[in-house]
Amino acid sequence: MSDFVRFDRVKKTYRMGEVVIEALRDASFSVERGELCVIVGPSGAGKTTLLNILGGMDTLTEGRVLLEGEEISAYNARQLTAYRRHDIGFVFQFYNLVPNLTALENVELAAQICRDPLDAAQVLRSVGLEHRLANFPAQLSGGEQQRVAIARALAKNPKLMLCDEPTGALDYATGKAILKLLQDMSREKGMTVIIITHNSALTAMADRVIQVKNGTVISEEVNASPVPVEEIEW
User: Is residue 2 predicted with pLDDT exceeding 80?
Assistant: First the structure.
């Protein structure tokens, strides 16, 4: 199989006055279409920088990043805007819902900016929120708000789903339910999902595990027998 995502010797530096901070150095990895990939590492390892570059929210200093053979790291600002809008679904630790819009309206808002969106109500039903379409975020639990955020990302019909510590603000049981939803999306819909986390226990659920430390990829492993989320303990 050819690489769906490819990071090729990526370097990212930030300059603060005369100080140069190296957030990433010589970072290389690949992900195949339909895989659930977990990128794991301690705080400050460079995980979020990797995700932001892949999602078109940050630029690199050296190297290349490709999605489906397209070198997204060579895109200009307008191309990056279109890329974020049409090709990428984002799920963050904090839900970033619009408080004065209902669950359905939050998802519809995202769907309106895309080329080929899915039906917002149907996507909310698919994540188990068929009875919550008319509720505002303040009327939803944390887990329900995260499901709305996932539905919002799904409704864009993205090529790639990027998840930044998606269970970080949730309790254990709710976090497991969210991870099961992400695993099911990969298994049943063939969606490519990348999750970054500091929790090494989550690597058991992944098709591919990438370990990041001190700004570089220290290992990349394909997991021949991913474990169902229900069987993971942490």
Answer: no
pLDDT at position 111: 86
CA distance 114 to 133: 21
What pLDDT was estimated at residue 52? 96
Q: Are 148 and 121 contacting, i.e. CB atoms less than 8 angstroms apart?
A: no
- Cα distance between residue 150 and residue 127, in whole Å: 8
The DSSP bridge partners found for residue 194 are 37, 162
- Report which of 162, 167, 166, 168 is spatially closest to residue 90, judged by C-alpha positions: 162
Predicted structure pTM score: 0.93
Domain ranges, ordered by start, for the chain? 95-158
Rounded CA-CA distance 13/49 in Å is 10
pLDDT of the residue at 114: 85
Distance CA 132, CA 98 (A): 15
**How far apart are the C-alpha atoms of 108 and 139, rounded to whole Å?**
18
